[in-house]
Amino acid sequence: MPSTKNVETLADLKERLADSDFLISTGFTGLNVATMTEFRRKLQSQGLQYRVVKNTLATLAAEELGTPQISQLLTGPTGLLMGKGDPAEAAKLLTEHIRASRITMQVNGAMVDGQVLSAQQVNALATMPPRPVIMAQLMGQIAGVASRLARSLNGPAQGLATTLNGPSRSIATVLQRNAEKQAS
Questions:
Q1: Distance between CA atoms of residues 110 and 72, nearest Å
Q2: pLDDT tens digit string along 113-144?
Q3: Element (DSSP H or E) covering residue 142
Q4: For 23-82, what is each residue's pLDDT tens digit?
Q5: pTM as predicted
Q6: pLDDT per residue over 133-173, tens digit each?
Q7: Angle, CA of 111, 116 and 117, to the nearest 5°
Q8: Which helix or strand (DSSP H or E) is residue 93 part of?
Q9: Which candidate, 139, 113, 141, 107, places its Cα nearest to that of 126?
Q10: Measured distance CA(11)–CA(88) in Å, rounded
């Protein structure tokens, strides 16, 4: 019979996992309370949360939510960084904090859009530019392709218009010169 505390913890964990767009799994061995508190405050200021979990409860919560692949990220003492929004920003915040604080927090992996990422992929995600920058770059690429396409499609029509306009210009020039001769 599970304890009341474990049942409540499982329900809370299921709710947090269901409300999160992504999660990053880390180890936390060797971190003192002050470092952990500072880390959590920094994450909370960005709308993220860090939760130390029991692997068995996290596995049960993931299975009940239909995402059993989360269990691949649960190795050893585990903490989960969860949140909404851009996972690249969260990964960047995590890696910068690890580097700046000189702590030995191991990144186990992440789950983004239902896909499990390795620790190396999380580090690569942290080096990516923010989503708005990527979107702006993509829009610039699309705009460049669209303008080149418009020029390519406009070229033959412009050539035809120039060709058709040529004789009428010649006639207009001849008529104008005749009118100038008669006026002088």
A1: 10
A2: 888 989 899 988 888 887 788 888 888 888 88
A3: helix 131-183
A4: 999 988 778 888 888 888 988 888 899 998 999 999 999 898 888 888 888 888 899 999
A5: 0.68
A6: 888 888 888 888 888 888 888 778 777 777 777 677 777 77
A7: 90
A8: helix 87-101
A9: 107
A10: 28
Contacts of 74 (CB under 8 A, 6+ apart): 25, 53, 55, 58, 59, 108
Residue the block writes with tokens 């406009």: 154
User: Phi/psi at 114 (nearest 5 deg)?
Assistant: 80, 0
Token representation of residue 89: 């920003």
Question: Residue 102 above 70 pLDDT?
Answer: yes
Residue 175 tokens read as: 């008529």
Q: Which H or E run contains 1?
A: none
The structure tokens listed for 32 are 């003192």
